[in-house]
Every structure is written in C-alpha cells, then in structure tokens.
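seq as requested:
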Amino acid sequence: MVSVLVVEDEPRTRDRLAAIVAARPDWRLLGNCGSLQEALIALQAERPDVLLLDLGLPDGSGLFLLQWLRERNAHTGTLVISVLGDESSVLRAIEQGAGGYLLKDADDAAVEAAIRQLLAGGAPLSPSIAVHLMRRLQGPPRGHRAEIDGMGLTERELELLRLIAKGLSYDEVGQLMGLKYNTITSYAKELYRKLQVHSRAEAVFEAQQLGLVGQA
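struct tokens:
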C-alpha cells in the first residue's frame, strides 16, 4: 500500500488531490495538510512514500519541507504541484530534492500518471516546463567538455545518465543495460556523488546543462 501526504493550502485543490489518492485502492491518503506546520507534524509522525507539495504555503515555503526531508535522508518521493512554472522556481525545487514538478492545471489523469511515474523511479514534469527547460539548456558551450572530463564519469555512468534523462525507470534501465536493479541504484548513487546532485531530476538537468543528453 502506497502512502501519500497532500500539502496544499487551497481547499479546492487540496480536496481534488486527496480524492485522486483516495480513489486508488492501492494508495492510502496519509494526511491532507493546509500549512507548513501541519505538514511537519504529519511528517514527524509517519514518512509517506509520496508527498504532493505546493510551494506557496501560508506559513512558509514548500522548499523548506524539501530541504527538511533531504537532510533526514527520507525515502519519500516528492511531486511539486504548483502554479509557479518559472525556471527559477522549478530549478530551486529540484535542487532541494523534488522528484517531479507539475503545474496545477494538470488534470486528474496527469496527476495520477505522474505519481505512478515517480514511484517507478521517473522524474515527471509538465510538458510546458520540460519543453521550456530543454530549449534553454540545450547546446551548452564547448568549454563544458573539460568540466565533464574532470568529473571522471565512467561509460556505464554516462549511459545510465542518458537513459534516465530519457525518462526510463531504474527497472527499465537495468533491462537495457543487462544489470540488476541493485547494481543500477549503486551506479546512480556514485553518479549523483560525482555530479554533486541529490535527486534524479537534478541529475537530468545537470546532464542537459553539460550537453550529455543526446550524445552517442
């Protein structure tokens, strides 16, 4: 049973997200919080498998919760659902550990699909956000080549990075690379260390910035 915590201050959106979770027999709604303080109390009582998080809360920023979870090495997949679609908000959320980012105009089916993708190891993004960031981050300066070489990434790690950048889950990557799931997660941990990132989504953006995505 997958446990889900909703953190959203707008009542209608909060109820909608709660209803999406409650309608799935394999998901359990752990809580329905309208503030940062309520969310902290809920998280201290029980860590959810998935956190649906708004960034603009009445008593603080959702970014604080992302940082709070990361500092405690919580195995919680966080999907930000926000009206803020600007590059700065998205990147800050990813840097703090968000596993995915949706705009609030996403319909129920898109929210459910994003949660399932997150649980499978993916990094779901609203299409408009993905297109905007891809266009901006493509084609980095050639000077990044020295930076890439200095990271000491192995061919296996580069292959893993390109595959997860395409949205493949760790299970799918393992099948393509002919490796076990535990081996893939071990490679991913070392990859994150070398890239100095803390989440899958952040690794994908780093790959785009360095021009690694799409290389043969």
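The mean pLDDT is 86.
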